[in-house]
Amino acid sequence: MSADTQKKRAGEAAALRVEAGMTVGLGTGSTAAWFVKALAARNLADLRCVPTSEATAELARDLGLPLSTLEDSPRIDLTVDGADEVGPGLALIKGGGAALLREKLVWEASARCLVIADAAKVVKTLGAFALPIEVVAFGHKTTANRIADVLADHDIAMPARVRTASPQAASDRVASIGAQYVRTDGGNLIYDAKCGAIHDPARLADDLKLITGVVEHGLFLDLADEAIIGTDGGVDLLTP
Ligand SMILES: O=C[C@H](O)[C@H](O)[C@H](O)COP(=O)(O)O
Prior knowledge:
Elements: H1 3-15, E1 23-26, H2 30-42, E2 48-51, H3 54-62, E3 76-81, E4 85-86, E5 92-93, H4 100-108, E6 110-118, E7 131-135, H5 140-153, E8 161-162, H6 167-172, E9 189-193, H7 201-209, E10 214-217, E11 219-220, E12 226-230, E13 235-238
Parallel strand pairs: 1-2, 1-3, 3-6, 6-12
Antiparallel strand pairs: 4-5, 5-11, 7-9, 7-10, 8-9, 12-13
Helix pairs in contact: 1-2
The structure holds ribose-5-phosphate (R5P).
């Protein structure tokens, strides 16, 4: 069975958790897109949907879901979002789609957060997936040196690399500097850190946040309340 089928199962199961009248955070990525489609198909009354990216906003708008913003709807009942890795205690790596900052803002404003993923995302140790780190473009190479120092302090030898767009995507972008770089919805850059294994995610999260120029990182710790994992047989539910 394909990963996409597992993602669809998880997304559809998550859509059943939404009730009429809720304010719902809409995640970003291919798994979250299945959730958004399944949610729209339910046609629930009085929903308010807060998207975590321009891409999700566009999808939700096309499907007729009522959109709001975090400014207008600062208290979210339930956010449903994908992940790049789901580790022990529902510690997550997110940001493969460069949406980590808006995602984290929406997650932290949510009474409940539900992560949805295919079975391959579940890992024993975080870090095989390169950790995305969102960095201000101004002086980003200096910031990258500081990130490298922090990574080295965590026994991660390889410096993080700035994420570049595919040639097609790059040609679609207009940026004042580095048109080849992926830009987040907020106009920042993404550095990806190939960690291999993150032995102390909480300490790494704290250390990265202390670097001037780092806007956010993709470690989502103590934020997910539950995970719905799509499998070949159905879905598995995980709690922290
Ligand atoms: O920035 C993107 C998000 O964190 C996504 O939720 C994450 O990358 C998972 O994406 P997908 O469901 O496409 O694997």
